[in-house]
Specification:
The protein is an alpha/beta fold. The chain has 27 helices and twelve strands. Helix 27 links the parallel strand 11 and strand 12.
Length: about 750
């Protein structure tokens, strides 16, 4: 069975499509019709998750350790990171039609399924484990007021809480969210009770941090960041509302308004409460007494506990609603079983995913030994999602694709700073969890990238590469060109690619990791019907990919073959990456075909384009130590290019460890001594190892016979291809045909570049 995933045939990962499926999203059976507005669907779950357990049980501890000034600084920095994330998320949400999956959807539709899955899978598990953590938070809050509760009873309370929120969420998302409005009222009443109960005559807490709690560790700068790490999870609820993106009437409007509104309200509350506590109690009491609110607030524990328990339960509801929808989006994209992508026909809820999430949370309640440490790990994995959202918005803003047109545009620098802040916070909270999170997500990305994941939408990766390529080309245009920087950018002409794979393979090996190889097929005649060039290009690219070669394929329609070769050669490439070498197959019609190639080479010589003609020769039988033979007449007689190409081939898998041989034919012993002296000086200078043999043709044996006899036992032969004078092309072509007969694989090389004679 294939590992291929084709999202085009699966259900949609997007929300309502009144005008039919989007061409950039998968099509299929849509989720139930969304009906949630900004206030109920985004603002309420987000603000209630932000104003959670930490507000009641840890904010006093933060003020006691960091002082009023330090606490305000921590709150400002933490909220700045959250605000940047909310702005990045809003930018992405206003640039697309947002579907099911919240943060996963935004990331996968911008960076691709592999990256989206690497973030989405841990995100789902973090959301699910958050249900357990909030349930235990409720149980522990009861223990604070009624000490002596046995551990088994706390587990039972947590389990009952998980079952309760799962059953309520299964009834209806809208009813569950509307039930949170009274919770918001309770939180507001508890905050108001705090402000009424405070004696505003004089501030009692220290202005500067003293860090009396030994758990904080080092004082001063290090202590500040230790307290920051404890506080930061309080403001990481910004994804609670966006997780319900598939249930929103208008996600583009609701997500930015709801999320940014919730962040603003959370910031105001978190700035006001520390000041109230600083007026209400001295530093020592703020550090030691977790339930200081109940002793300060008007009305005592009754008003405070309603807000505390309501905040915990609302956070649990946010997680149980968000986790199944992330799982649903993963299933729609083929990253989880398909059954998890469907809604229940009666309730319109993803019931199967919801039940699975509830079971996982319930099992975790009985298995997880240390919830405090688990909470750190869950927070870190959440932060990878926030960091990814900032990264996506940063890349979109930096790349500037024409399709990136958000209604709410944020400068990419804001997103960059938000992303950096997320990863710094990850490290401060738990360095080991930060490292593990990155490794786990990298492994998931690697596994998914090994699968054939096909998406029907574009993502920012293409734009990123295009932007990078443009920048590099602009820099390349300004650089001085030198022979030492020459690389073989090969333009290979072939009409029967499948039959000429050996030639293409040789070209790809010469250009691999150095130059650019383009396989060009010319369709001669009248312009083809629409789509033929594109289909033919795709077919050729498939052949090249099947052969494991690195090359681009193009198909061009021309009216004349010879003129087409010249025209296409001139037009191919740009900005310092023009094709500098043309490769042709040895013609099948003998001397007539060779004569045509020589005339083409004459024109290309004037255009400073080198020419290589490939003759397959005898069947390829590579030996463990392949032998490459260069017939040398001198650097200026094409020898420099032949020697360089042979040297480059020796670093490839096919010719690795091969022997490079230089052979030269002279007429006298005196010339032989001069040629050997030339080789002795040349090879150390150019730093190429080669065996040398100088052949004295004293008996004036025909050169073709001499070359044929001395080329036996080699695997690849390089021969120079000079351009004969006008009027001698036909006779020279016949000599070329005679010369290559009986030879092993041959490359006839004509160097016409601007660095002729200086490439080695």
């Amino acid at each position: 069975m294939s590992d291929s995933v084709d999202t085009a045939s699966g259900p949609p990962a997007g929300a309502p499509r009144p005008n039919g499926p989007s061409p950039t999203e998968p099509a299929g059976d849509p989720p139930a019709a969304p009906k949630l507005g900004t206030f109920i669907g985004v603002f309420t779950p987000t603000v209630l998750t932000i104003l959670g357990l930490m507000l009641y049980l840890r904010i006093g501890w933060v003020v006691g350790n960091a002082g009023v000034a330090g606490a305000i600084g921590i709150i400002i920095i933490a909220n700045a990171i959250t605000l940047a994330t909310a702005l990045s998320m809003s930018t992405l949400a206003t640039n697309m039609r947002v579907g099911v999956g919240g943060a996963y959807y935004l990331i996968s539709r911008t960076l691709g399924l592999e990256f989206g899955g690497a973030i989405g899978i841990p995100l789902y598990l973090s959301q699910t484990l958050s249900i357990t953590l909030y349930a235990y938070g409720l149980a522990e809050s009861i223990q604070v007021f009624w000490p002596g509760v046995p551990p088994w009873l706390m587990t039972v309370i947590a389990a009952v809480t998980i079952i309760g929120v799962t059953l309520v969420a299964a009834r209806s998302t809208e009813l569950t969210l509307k039930a949170q409005i009274p919770v918001m009222v309770l939180i507001g009443v508890s905050i108001l009770a705090l402000f009424i109960g405070v004696d505003w005559d004089m501030i009692q807490a220290d202005w500067q941090g003293s860090y009396p709690d030994p758990d904080v560790g080092a004082k001063g700068f290090a202590g500040f960041w230790s307290v920051f790490a404890v506080f930061f999870p309080a403001v990481t609820g910004v994804l609670a509302g966006v997780s319900l993106s598939g249930d929103l009437k208008d996600p583009r409007r609701a997500i930015p308004l709801g999320a940014l509104g919730a962040v603003a309200v959370g910031f105001v509350v978190y700035m006001a409460v520390p000041i109230a506590l600083a007026f209400a109690a001295p530093t020592a009491q703020l550090v030691d007494d977790k339930v200081i609110w109940t002793k300060i607030a008007f009305g005592g524990p009754i008003l405070v506990m309603g807000g505390l328990w309501g905040a915990i339960l609302s956070s649990a509801f946010g997680s149980i609603l968000g986790a199944p929808r992330t799982l649903q989006a993963l299933a729609m994209d083929g990253l989880a079983p398909k059954a998890l992508g469907k809604n229940d026909p009666e309730t319109g809820e993803p019931l199967l995913g919801l039940r699975i999430s509830g079971v996982i949370a319930l099992v975790a309640a009985f298995l997880l030994p240390d919830l405090d440490s688990v909470a750190e790990w869950v927070t870190v994995f959440f932060l990878t999602t926030y960091g990814a959202l900032n990264l996506v918005a940063f890349l979109e803003g930096l790349v500037g694709d024409s399709g990136f047109r958000p209604s709410l545009r944020v400068h990419w620098l804001v997103s960059a700073l938000g992303g950096i802040g997320c990863f710094v916070a990850m490290f401060l909270i738990n360095p080991w969890a930060c490292l593990v999170a990155i490794v786990v997500e990298a492994l998931i990305f690697y596994v998914l990238s090994r699968r054939s994941l096909q998406s029907t939408w574009g993502d920012v990766r293409t734009g990123l590469w295009l932007t990078t390529a443009r920048y590099v080309l602009m820099q390349l245009r300004r650089q001085r060109v030198d022979p030492r920087n020459w690389r073989p950018h090969l333009l290979v002409f072939t009409s029967r690619l499948r039959e000429n794979v050996p030639m293409v393979q040789l070209a790809a090996e010469m250009g691999r990791q150095r130059g650019i190889v383009t396989i060009m097929e010319l369709l001669v005649g009248e312009p083809p019907e629409p789509g033929k060039l594109r289909r033919r290009t795709a077919e050729n690219q498939h052949i090249v990919d099947q052969a494991g070669l690195t090359a681009f394929c193009e198909v061009v329609a021309v009216r004349d073959l010879e003129a087409g070769i010249v025209d296409v050669t001139q037009a191919n490439g740009f900005a310092g990456l023009q094709s500098n070498t043309v490769m042709l197959g040895f013609p099948g019609d003998g001397a007539v075909g060779v004569a045509r190639i020589l005339e083409i080479a004459r024109v290309l010589d004037g255009l400073e384009k080198s020419v290589i003609v490939h003759q397959p020769g005898t069947a390829r039988q590579r030996r463990p130590e392949p032998r490459l033979l260069v017939w040398w007449k001198g650097r200026e007689h094409n020898g420099d290019l032949m020697l360089l190409l042979a040297h480059l081939l020796r670093s490839t898998d096919t010719f690795r460890g091969g022997v490079l041989i230089l052979k030269s034919i002279v007429d006298t012993e005196e010339e032989a001594r001069e040629r050997r002296t030339e080789f002795a000086r040349l090879l150390p200078e150019i730093r190429i190892d080669a065996e040398v043999e100088v052949i004295v043709n004293a008996e004036t044996e025909p050169v073709a016979d001499l070359i044929r006899r001395h080329s036996r036992g080699t695997d690849l032969v390089f021969l120079g291809l000079p351009i004969p004078p006008e009027g001698q092309v036909a006779s020279y072509a016949e000599g070329v045909v005679t010369m290559v007969q009986g030879l092993p694989e041959v490359l006839l090389v004509h160097n016409a570049g601007p660095f002729k004679g200086r490439l080695v």
